C-alpha cells in the first residue's frame, strides 16, 4: 500500500510513496560544521539517498524509512522545520552586514529575530518572510509575503509578494524604519492577517481589499501619510499626466485631398447613437480639413507601432509633406483616409457639434462606420511615453516639456523637431550608439530615435 505524509513526525512522503524526506530547522541556513557533520552522519547511518539544499535555505534529508523517523529525529537533536501547512514556513535571509560587502543593514540579526518570533506560527495561509541587507534583494524580499530590504536610511518593508504559479510583486508599506520600527510593523501585519479567516495568501487578500485599505487596517492611514503633501494652491501639471489616453491617427479630406495627424485625445462620448470626440489644434492642416468636410476618421494604433511612423504624422504638417506617400491606407465611407498600417481598428464619424476651446477645437462626431482590422493591444499614451520614450509637439493638447534628467553627466543635446533629449550616459543603443558616447562622436548619418530628424536638428542644452 502507498504511504502518505507523516506530518506528526515532520516527514513528507517521496515520489516512491515509500521513503520520506525530513527537514531540520536551520534558521537562515546558517549552520556550523558540527551541525553539518551531524546531519551527514545521521543521513549516512539511516541510508538516506541524498541531502538536498532547499529554497528556504534548509537541508532536506531524503530517503528515510518510516520506521527510522523517530530515531533520526532523536539522534539529530533538532526541531523539524515548518516546511508545510498554513503557517510561517520560512524566514529567508541573506548574509547582510555580517558577511556581505554590499550590505546596508543587518539582515542576519533581523532574520534571526523574525525566525525566533514567527517560524511555524499558524496563519490563515502559507506565509514566507524574506530579509535582504540591501536593494539587491538576494533573499527575494519582493516575492515574499513580507519582505524587508536594507537601505542606507533603514529598512523598507514590503507586503503581499509571492512566487509560485501566479507570481505577485510585493507592495511598499513603509521605509526608513529602524530595527524596532520594522519589527513593530511586521507584528502589525501578522496580527492583522491572523484575524482573517479565509485561507488565502496575503497578496490575494490585498488584491481584494487594496493596499491602502490594508494599510489603514494596520494603522498606516494613507490620508495622514499624504495630507501634508497636498497642495491645492497651484496647478501641478504632473497631475494631468495621470489622465489615461490612447494613440490615434485622425484623418480627414478636403477638395479631393487627404491628410492626417496623430492625436491622443479621442474618446467615446455616447453609445446610443455612438459618438466620439477629438481635440484638434486650430493651426493643424487636419483641423482645416475637418472644418471643411465635416468628417474625420480615427485609426487606432497598436502598441508595436514604431516611433518614426508616429513621428511622420505627429511632428510634421501635411502642409510641408505628403504624409501618405509610403503609408498603406484605404478611403472610408466618408471619404476620410483610414490608415491600415500599424492600426488595429478604425472609426469614421460625421461632425455633429464642435466647441472652440482656446488653441483647440473639440469636434464631436456621430460614428458612421467602424471595424476591427486585426487583434492586438492598442498603444496607450503612458506606454508611448514610458516604454517607447516618445514625446509630443507643442500643438498637442497634452504637451509635456522634456526635462533633462537631474543626474545627467556630459553635454545634453535636444532635438528641435520633437524635443527628445540625447543623454550621452544613455546613448541610443537601438540606433547603434552605446551608452557613454558624447554627442560629438555620433556618426553624421545618425537620426533622432523619436522623430527621425537628422543630427544637425539637435542643439546643445547643457
Ligand atoms: C503623441 C502625440 C500626440 C498628439 N496629440 C494631439 C492631439 O490630441 N491633438 C492635436 O491637435 N495634435 C496632437 N498632436 C500634434 C499633431 O499630430 C501635430 O501637430 C501634427 O503635425 C499636425 O499635422 P497636420 O498639420 O498635418 O494636421 C500630437 C502629436 C503627438 C506626437
Ligand atoms: S541582498 Fe545585498 S546585502 Fe544581501 S547578500 Fe545580496 S548584495 Fe549582499
Descriptive terms for the model:
single chain; 462 residues; alpha+beta; seven-stranded antiparallel sheet; five-stranded mixed sheet; binds flavin mononucleotide; binds iron/sulfur cluster
3D structure, described in words:
By secondary structure, the chain is an alpha+beta fold. It has twelve helices and 21 strands. The strands form five sheets. Strands 11-10-14-17-18-13-12 form a seven-stranded antiparallel sheet. It has a five-stranded mixed sheet with strand order 5-6-7-8-9, covered by helices on one side. A hairpin with a 2-residue loop joins β7 and β8. The mean pLDDT is 94. The structure holds flavin mononucleotide and iron/sulfur cluster.
Distance between the termini: 78 Å
Principal-axis shape equals elongated
> Mind describing the biggest β-sheet?
7 strands, antiparallel
The neighbouring-strand order within the major sheet is: 11-10-14-17-18-13-12
> What bound compounds does this protein have?
flavin mononucleotide, iron/sulfur cluster
Helix content: 10-25%
Low-confidence stretches: none
What's the average pLDDT? Answer: 94
Structural class category = alpha+beta
Number of helices: 12
What is the strand content?
25-35%
Roughly how many Å is the radius of gyration? 31 Å
Write down how many β-strands occur, each being a DSSP E stretch of 2 or more residues: 21
Question: Oligomeric state of the chains?
Answer: single chain
